[in-house]
Amino acid sequence: MKIKKYEKTRNYVIDRFYGELKYFDIEEEYKRQANQFEEKLDNLKTKLEVLEKYGRQIQVDVEDIIEKGFQIKNARRGIIETVTFSLIAISILTLYIFLTNALGVKFLVASQLTLSILLPWVVVLFSVIAKRKGEII
Amino acid sequence: MRLDELRLINEAKRGNKEALTRLIEENIDILIGFVFKMTGDSHLSQDIVQETLLKAIINLDKFLPKAKFSTWLIKIAINVYRDYLKKNKKESSLEESLKASEQSVEESAISNHEYSQILATIQSLPYKFRVVFILKHFYGYKYNEIAKILHCPVGTVRSRLHYAVKFLIDELKRKGILDNEDKKI
User: Fold this and answer.
1) Does B96 touch chain A (CB under 8 A)?
2) CATH fold for the domain made of B112-185
3) ipTM
């Protein structure tokens, strides 16, 4: 029981030392031990300060890592774009085949005609938008 | 989070290399210090810091500026180091890790004996206690912040810190490092 209480006191001292506990009641018989333990914590802190003075010999080329990071990022983006493009293209073609099958050859002819008439205008529209964006930038 | 840091993060997210360089350079000392204290080995630290930074740059878009950038870097470094430990099964036994850390400290040619002893003692702490102790003692994180970083309950963080502190005091006393200080008093 005594050992348990002593351990509990030491735990509270640690909590207080690290600013996690503002106040706690220490039983009279453990006060001296708590003070001694707090002194040990102070000594430990002083001793560990030595770690802040050394160990800074590690050299890291930040710019080189950033360059590598951007390369990996761009490569990943390229893969994602290719996969997305392929998926969209496959989906459109599948849909086209499915609709042609369901609606007959008339759908194929009508859609081809519509696309051949509309597509040049769409391209013109996109090129105008792209040109305007370029001027703004 | 400082406004300046937030601005740098936003710029870096937009692909501004200069902002990213500044952001990393402002936080790299904290990262290096943390990793070195965790590993006690300058070569291993260099590898872990490089991998951490690479992962941070690649995943920068996922970073939400709720916490400091340095905290995010430390979080990544913890994961990188944990993966390293898993791959290398470095935590097989406490004695082994103590031996290894003592060797690595010797290899790093640091003449200060006490420094080597203290670093080796910290390395002899098992990983889960060491990480809590370093985050609390050297970086002053609150229990709940450490719990968030390590994804564990606050009570676990508290008990791990208690164990780590008592272990370090006992070990440094056994090595005559803390006793000497007591005698001086």
Assistant:
1) no
2) Arc Repressor Mutant, subunit A (1.10.10)
3) 0.79
